[in-house]
Design brief:
Cell division protein that is involved in the assembly of the Z ring. May serve as a membrane anchor for the Z ring. This is Cell division protein FtsA. It is found in: Cell membrane. It comes from Sphingomonas rosea. By secondary structure, the chain is α+β, with helices and mostly antiparallel strands. It has 11 helices and 18 strands. The strands form 5 sheets. The chain has a 5-stranded mixed beta sheet with strand order 3-2-1-6-11, with helices on both faces. Strands 14-13-12-17-18 form a 5-stranded mixed beta sheet, sandwiched between helices. It has a 4-stranded antiparallel beta sheet with strand order 7-10-8-9. β4 and β5 form a beta hairpin. It is globular, with a radius of gyration of 23 Å. The chain binds adenosine-5'-triphosphate and magnesium ion (MG). Adenosine-5'-triphosphate binds next to α6 and α7.
Length: 419
């Protein structure tokens, strides 16, 4: 049990399709997280980001958290957890109040936000984040801070991220069954963005592509917040499975081949290099298969091309088109595939870089790769508190259905000073 003399403890937990990772942090004098311990287990019972076998996942959660607790010699009571499966939605809710021409006071803003609390049915979705984005004064959009200005009407666009209720509850229940409290469940792209995008990038407009094991989350960030997201049920594990199926080797060998010999770019040397692996079911000592790198590349490229095409379609669908769209940042374990950023840069025709989580004190090397962006982002978010969220807020939807295309351009226009 924590007592007042003990340091503030933050627990973060990322339940992915391939791994469950946990981190225990404290805060330094400046309020920045300092890592005390980390833990990781192979994920079980998670498919495409959804918990499908609660008991199996619970064991992985318990073991990963216990490992982080042991390393830090601390016990945590609750965690900040990520949610990165499909079924996330992002939109803007607009609310407006009459001011009557006087100067806007902080209480007017509070009243405005309060009026956004009127509960509406979100059709089986749970609100994860509700951030006041940009204010509107009469017909002028894009006002960041309205206090002190004269207005007849004051409005605000509240950015809402919601998740389908059932899969979210399963994550919540799994964590609770592992005897941990749930402080907050955070949309994975929100956490990952905080860890591997600079504040300037998030302000100017950037796309973040998190290539996980079984899910690829594409999100747009502008004006310092997430303004659109799409989830694609394809990930780096699909490359492993393709290799295993194409050459008849075990998944474990296919994974090793992908990580050590795989690449997203072909090279003239590919015909001369050979990779060896035992066929499935082969006895020890039997003749290994000889796979040329060119054959391997054909298999990898097919999956990478398909994934990139889906990413491109998602970006277009959300309105991330030139000239407003900026660069693309790739993260998640799949971003470790050799030359993936170069390949995507060629196809997408815009700058692409690999994003690793920002260094936080005490983060071990083993947890500093792009696969840990969401985990590190959770710790950063937790260290900042709620970050302007309107907690427990149920907001009216302006229109049903995804509206991200309009939202991105609208925000970009507003941020850049247009109407
Ligand atoms: N060097 C590498 N080359 C190619 N792929 C890699 C490399 N290193 C790791 N990966 C892949 O990254 C994937 C794991 O990524 P990550 O840890 O982000 O997924 P996850 O969070 O468990 O799953 P998800 O977010 O999809 O639910 C694995 O499929 C792994 O094969
Ligand atoms: Mg993940």
């Amino acid at each position: 049990m924590a007592n007042r003399e003990e340091p503030i403890l933050i627990g973060a937990l990322d339940i992915g399709s391939s791994k469950v990772s946990a981190i225990v942090c404290t805060l330094d004098e400046e309020g920045r997280p300092r890592v005390l311990g980390t833990g990781q287990r192979q994920s079980r019972g998670v498919k495409r980001g959804f918990v499908t076998d609660m008991e199996a996942t619970e064991v992985a959660v318990r073991e990963a958290v216990e490992q982080a607790e042991r390393m830090s010699s601390q016990n945590i009571e609750d965690v900040w957890a990520s949610y990165g499966a499909g079924g996330l939605s992002s939109d803007l809710a607009t609310v407006e109040v009459e001011i009557g021409g006087h100067q806007v006071e902080p209480t007017d803003v509070e009243e405005l936000l309060q009026s956004g609390r009127e509960a509406v049915d979100r059709d089986g979705q749970v609100v994860l984040h509700a951030n006041p984005a940009l204010y509107t004064i009469d017909d002028v959009q894009g006002v960041r801070s309205p206090v002190g200005m004269h207005a007849s009407r004051l409005g605000v666009d509240i950015h809402v991220i919601a998740a389908d209720e059932a899969p979210l509850r399963n994550v919540d229940l799994t964590i609770r069954q592992a005897h941990l409290g749930v402080r907050a469940i955070v949309a994975s792209p929100v956490a990952a963005a905080l860890a591997c995008l600079s504040p300037e990038e998030r302000d100017l407009g950037v796309a973040l592509v998190e290539l996980g094991a079984e899910v690829t989350n594409v999100s747009l960030h502008a004006g310092g917040m997430l303004v659109g997201l799409r989830s694609i049920p394809i990930g780096a594990k699909d490359i492993t499975d393709d290799i295993a199926a194409a050459f008849g080797v075990r998944r474990r060998d296919a994974e090793r081949i992908k990580c050590f010999h795989g690449s997203a770019m072909t090279s003239p040397r590919d015909n001369h290099e050979v990779v060896e692996a035992l066929p499935i079911g082969a006895e020890d000592g039997s003749e290994p298969l000889r796979i040329s790198r060119a054959q391997l590349m054909t298999v990898i490229r097919q999956r990478v091309e398909r994934t990139t095409a889906e990413v491109e379609a998602a970006l277009k669908d959300m309105g991330f088109v030139k000239p407003v769209g900026g660069q693309v940042v790739l993260t998640g374990g799949g971003a470790e595939l050799k030359n993936i950023a170069d390949y995507m840069q060629g196809v997408l025709g815009r700058a692409v870089r690999v994003g690793r989580p920002r260094a936080i004190t005490g983060l071990p090397d083993a947890h500093s790769g792009p696969a840990f962006s969401s985990l590190v982002g959770l710790a950063l978010l937790a260290s900042q508190g709620s970050g302007g969220d309107i907690r427990d807020l149920a907001l009216p939807r302006s229109k049903p259905g995804p509206q991200a295309t309009g939202m991105f351009s609208r925000l970009m226009t507003a941020i850049k000073g247009g109407r």
